[in-house]
Design a protein that fits this description.
The protein has 11 helices and no strands. It is mainly alpha-helical. Helix 2 (30-39) crosses helix 3, helix 2 (30-39) runs antiparallel to helix 8 and helix 5 crosses helix 6. The protein is elongated. The relative contact order is 0.13. The model has no long low-confidence stretch (mean pLDDT 92). The protein binds a DNA duplex through residues 23-25, 37-38, 40-47, 78-86, 89, 116-119, 121-122, 125, 137-142, 157, 177-178, 181, 184-185, 189-191.
Amino acid sequence: MKKSEKALQLLQALDEIYPQAHCALNYQNPWQLLVATILSAQCTDVRVNIVTAELFRVLPDAKAMAEASQEQVEELIRTTGFFRNKAKNLIHCAQQVLTLHQGEVPADLKSLVALSGVGRKTANVVLGNAFQIPGMVVDTHVKRLVRRFGWTKSDNPEQVEKELSKLLPESTWIQCSHTLIAHGRACCKAPTPICSACPVVALCPRKGVNKSK
DNA sequence: ATCCCGAGGG
DNA sequence: CCCTCTGGAT
């Protein structure tokens, strides 16, 4: 069987085990998803949703965010961590969306990555979930799992994204990230995967490398 | 202690 | 390539 066929077989098995995998961030429009995704760095989605409930009430759109003070935004997002950097990026990002894109979040990778605080991971989350434009989201979970699966040997997120995009059909990209992340959280953890309870151990090249429980 | 759906700067 | 930024959860 070809490498891409094997990968697809494993992915389809995971899709059946995690059919409910989806973007767990709360948002009502592309701008709010962009904000929530920026806040999600090194923070759980549950915590982001707690913070954005109040944040979106006080500062509902890019215009309000662009006019807010650094101190106000810091206070609203403090518990998500990295709050100084995130506040600075959010305000600058909002100003860029207003001046460069007439207040609308752009729907292409190049424009998104040019925004303050937005890297390829965040850009692909917004493209896939707000605009239904396929993009491979390579975060820490996705990178760890696909390396364990032997789908790539690269440690560079952008290189991993490139190789995955070649290996998997475009139609799988959006859901695939959610599925891999769900499995990464539930089972294929860093640094010790729970191989004895893994539903796809038979399809994994490591075949249960972690023998402890 | 270690991890959480990273990005920017040196 | 490395470092820094940060609080919360377990």
